[in-house]
Amino acid sequence: MLAWVVGRMGWLALQPTQTPARWQASTVAVSSDAGNDRAEVAKVLNMNLFGRYQESAPVVERKQPVKQDAPQTRLSLTLVGLVASSNPQTALAVITHRGKQNTYGLNEAIEGTRATLQAVYPDRVIIRNSGRDETLMLDGVDFNKASQRSVQSARPAPSRAEPEEPSSDLSRIKQEILEKPQTLFSYIRLSQVKRDGELVGYRVNPGKDRALFDAVGLQADDLAVSLNGNDLTDAAVMAKLWTELSDASDFTLTVEREGQLHDIYIELQ
Q: Region Disordered: start and end of each range (predicted)?
């Protein structure tokens, strides 16, 4: 028995040692159906089953229309001058409040009040006071009488067999300005020009009918600096200026053109 055990051990010692086989991961075949599954998921997402996210649209603020027949204001304001124009950028009003006079454009706040300038007409302006439109009449113009004239002018005029004179009739324009001096600025438009925050004059351009503009020798973009000797760059002289215009039958407008000053004589008679 001992001899068998010794022989067995000797035989095992002579056999080569077997190395264990190395483990390898089995190859897994990927089905092409996975790409199809992703495509199907994308289709489901694009269906927006739970709604589509959208950013809130900007709120558009509606502009309150100006009430032309607004009641007369009770604010202690005096309208000493104005420039009425179909172009909102050139419409101006010269308003005095508590002894202080300023020139305002549309939508500008009137100093010392909560009111803003909303519209400029030949004999009045409309201001918006705490959301309420109110009328401020040109100094010396009666609110009640002017309102009656507005109602009458709104009625259709009877038809005429004879045609009206053309709008370019210079004599008709001059007569209109003689009767209502403030209408001068509906034929000759003025817009403020400022440099470094300081008023340097008014840009001159033709208004609704350029007949007068061309007849007196004005040129587009002339810079008006004086009217009847009154310095237009000084707002304090505006009250005096409007008083002179109400009685004048001619005007001398001094303009700057290409660095040179030119006197433009406007005769209405």
A: 147-171
Q: Domain 166-267 maps to which CATH number in 3.30.1780.10, 2.30.42.10, 1.10.1520.10, 2.102.10.10? A: 2.30.42.10
DSSP count for the chain of H helices, then E strands:
7, 12
pLDDT band at 162 (very low <50, low <70, confident <90, very high): very low
Task: Look at residues 62, 39, 64, 126 and name the one whose alpha carbon lies nearest to residue 91.
Answer: 126
CB 216 within 8 A of CB 177: no
pTM of the model: 0.40
Give the separation between CA 129 and CA 136, rounded to whole angstroms: 11
CATH class of 77-137: mainly beta
**233 alpha-carbon distance from chain centroid:** 24
pLDDT tens, position by position, 93-126 = 889 998 888 889 999 999 999 999 999 887 889 9
Contact 128/116 with Cβ under 8 angstroms?
A: yes
206-240 per-residue burial string, b: 16 or more CB within 10 A, e: under 16: bbebebbbeeeebeeebbbbbbeebebbeeebbee
